[in-house]
Amino acid sequence: MNKKKLYIISTSIIVTLSIIFGYLYHYELLNPFDKKIVDLMFKIRGYQIPSKDIVIIDIDEKSLNELGQWPWSRNKVAKILYNLKNAGAGIIGLDIVFSEQDNSSPKKILTELGIEYQNAPDYDEILAKAVSETPTILGYIFDFENDSNLEGSSPEIPVIFIEKNRPKELDFIIKAKRAILNIPIIQNNAYSSGFFNTIPDNDGIVRTVPLIVRYDDSIYPSLSLEIVRAIIGVNKVYINYTSSGVTSVQMNDLIIPTDRFGRLLVNFKGPAKSYTYLSASDIYNNKFNYDLINGKIVLIGTSASGLLDLRATPYDSTFPGIEIHANTIDNLINQTFITIPDWIEVADILVMITICLISVIIFSITPPFLLTLFIPLIFGGFFIFLYKMLFEYHILLNTIFPLLLLISLFSISTIINYFYEIRIKEIIKDKFAKKVSPQVVEELLNSPESDAFDIKEKEITIFFSDIRSFTSISEQIGNPKRLIELLNRYMTPMVDIIINNKGTIDKFIGDAIMAYWNAPQNLDNHQDAAVTSALEQLQMLENLNNSFKTEGLPVINIGIGIHTGLATVGEMGSQGRNDYTVIGDNVNLASRLEGLNKYYGTQLIISHFTKDKLHKTYITRELDTVLVKGKKHPVTIYEVLGFGTPDEKLKKELNLYEKALSKYKNRDFTDAKYFFEIIYKNSPKTLYKIYIERCNNFIKHPNKFNAIYEFTTK
């Protein structure tokens, strides 16, 4: 593992743990941002088809124009209730509280004037009678701040609340300080009632509604919850707890998930006026389609701006309060609640750990330029995941802490990549400027995030060359300075040829050159590049020797060995003194092959591992199958004589040599010797002499024949 990956992994773990700590102990700091992201998801989702079983009777501007300013006389409200009942309303909920007597009532006016009139209409009595004769659930409000009490009784409801597993001495349910009820004559004639408070978050947006409130040591339902309870027809409601607080409100099989305070996160169906709205004046004047009311849940409230019942929601800044109750009832009846399970902390932490793992994998292996393309996909994928969890599985996961983690991990990886890239570029310039061609250096600089410096096993082609009889040459020249000049004149073009063929100079060992191909950069047909370099060097050496002869300098003869195989490549050495190099048995084998040139009288020997992967055409011939000192496995070696195809003379020589070698391998030593002698006579080379001597030996001692020739010295 390289240092960059190690840095990314270690810092990512530290940052992840820090953000998880912040999530667990400083959640509220970023909670407002989390809510804004959820609001955005609601807006992106847009309008959803609401329940057709819920209808809103709107005290709208039209109604105010036709029936007068609010508050209306209560006989008008009573008429609306009767008309709704006659249309077949299943249940009616009032988002209105009648906390004072109707000042427009004739009976009240006459009483205040001291006039007694026995049959004077009492509008409060008329409304109370209508409430008792229609399926109406009254509304009222709780005051959570002001305890300068107005005298009044607590609301009575036909339901028992049972708290299950409530932690002792802990109370999570929201507490009210006073209740603002309907006047007794109206309140006492109702089947039931529920509070219609909506409590906005600190930013003024209503996202949750309390389903239950504690007041005077008793629990009371919201208008929405009470309407649904009345529809279900139960008289016991269970409140389920864990040690963290309320988890749900249960009515028979209907389990309504809540937060720890007994609040429901409302799954809004869309912007304002998503539900069916009917004008209250049309109901009053009986100018409406009864089919729109028959069997429906009917809510009476207002959207008129002057009546101050407009709220801010994720969709709108002016959202009728009555429609919040409609959304709540819709959620409860159709069980489309958004849940925040008691195991949500574990889920959020697992999400963050998963983000860390995925990010570490992606950020540590992806090049920076690709990372900029991946980031929108990563963020988009994460947003889609949260979106699907919210709207398909109705589970609200935390958004801001995982998002903060993702941003932090990306920023950290970007910073590490940036400084690592700068450092690697400096190392590349330092390590490879003299080892490879400028083109290869440029390629490395353009991809510094690659694993070029990592220690790994890789197939490479290794090259060794050595000057023959260098000691004799140094003695002939005598002057060390002139010897160095001669050596430099030889080395410079040899190195240039290797570099021009995209080879890497590993080191100079006295008068020897070690090089390799396919590292640090991958190179297609690296075997050809190595053999081409060797042949070009031999051609260059011929030109150099012509110059040396003219100048009275000794000529230079070299041997070259090339082998292809797996080797360990990478940055190696001691702390502070290291270098990019290659090691392994195959490197040693290439060195041994170079040394065999002296024995066979050749200049360029390659292994069959190299020859078998050549793509270009070369003039080659098999030399032998050998087992070099220190190796357990034999290798077939070849001499490379040049590019392309041989001329007629050389072709005849090679064909005859091939026949001779075939006879030799088949133990026909007499015929083999005959052919080798013919070749040797026309071309007295060391190779032919070797095989003639071997044939003579095996003619005398055929049982000692071994097709694999073993070298006992280097």
Spell out the blueprint of helices and strands.
Layout: H1 3-25, H2 27-45, E1 54-58, H3 61-67, H4 74-86, E2 91-94, H5 106-112, H6 123-133, E3 136-143, E4 160-164, E5 178-180, H7 184-187, E6 192-195, E7 208-210, E8 212-215, E9 218-221, H8 223-232, E10 236-242, E11 245-251, E12 254-257, E13 263-265, E14 276-279, H9 280-284, E15 297-301, E16 310-311, E17 319-320, H10 321-334, H11 344-365, H12 368-391, H13 400-432, H14 438-446, E18 456-467, H15 470-477, H16 480-500, E19 504-509, E20 512-517, H17 526-550, E21 558-574, E22 577-583, H18 585-600, E23 604-607, H19 608-611, E24 618-627, E25 635-643, H20 648-665, H21 669-682, H22 686-700, E26 708-710
Parallel strand pairs: 1-14, 1-15, 2-3, 2-15, 3-6, 4-10, 21-23, 24-26
Antiparallel strand pairs: 3-5, 7-13, 8-9, 10-11, 11-12, 16-17, 18-20, 18-21, 19-20, 21-22, 23-25, 24-25
Helix pairs in contact: 1-11, 1-13, 4-6, 8-10, 11-13, 12-13, 16-17, 20-21, 21-22
Keywords: Cell membrane, Membrane, Transmembrane, Transmembrane helix
Domain Guanylate cyclase: 461-594
Family: Belongs to the adenylyl cyclase class-3 family.
Descriptive overview:
The protein has 3 domains: 3-28 and 343-426, no CATH class; 46-334, no CATH class; 444-645, Alpha-Beta Plaits, CATH 3.30.70.1230. The protein starts with a helix and ends with a strand. Helix 11 (344-365) runs parallel beside helix 13 (400-432) and helix 16 runs antiparallel to helix 17. Strands 18, 19, 20, 21, 22, 23, 24, 25 and 26 form a 9-stranded mixed sheet that branches. Strands 1, 2, 3, 5, 6, 14 and 15 form a 7-stranded mixed sheet that branches. It has a 4-stranded mixed sheet with strand order 4-10-11-12, with no helix packed on it. With 714 residues, it is of the alpha/beta class. The chain has 22 helices and 26 strands. It is 45% helix and 21% strand. The chain is rod-shaped and about 155 Å long.
